[in-house]
Amino acid sequence: MEWNFTLRRIAVFMGLLLGIVLLEFTLPSKVRHSGRHTGAHARSLLAMLAGAFTACFADHYSGIIDRTNFRPAYIFIGLMVMGLGLFLILGLRGAA
Q: Is residue 22 part of a domain?
């Protein structure tokens, strides 16, 4: 697996990062600062960041003669992990 940092990928990652920050900090303050929800809040933030990083920067080529790129799979996996983080955020909003 390789990490490929291009200007376009960095711009997309920064856009996703801005969206994550806006989602995370629109939670009610009693959820963000509650000791009961701190672990879930951290896990949702970590899942969203890991998914965004994987979807933006992961590359994987396989094969010597006929090279295959597995980037679409990494984008799909990153989106699924970001979906899990979003599901956790919506669950925290329901708990408020």
A: no
pLDDT tens digits, one per residue of 46-83: 899 999 999 999 988 888 888 888 889 999 999 999 99
Phi, psi of 36 (to 5 degrees): -70, -30
Q: Determine what percent of the chain is predicted with pLDDT higher than 90.
A: 36
Residue (of 36, 54, 41, 51) closest to 84 by Cα position: 51
Q: Record the tokens describing residue 11, joined without a space.
A: 């711009």
CA 34 to CA 13: how far, in whole Å?
29
**pTM value surpassing 0.85:** no
AA letter at 14: M
Structural domain including 92 reads: 45-96
Q: What one-letter code names the amino acid at 58?
A: A
27 Cβ contact partners less than 8 Å away, ≥ 6 residues apart? 41, 89, 92, 93, 96
Structure tokens at 78: 């990153």
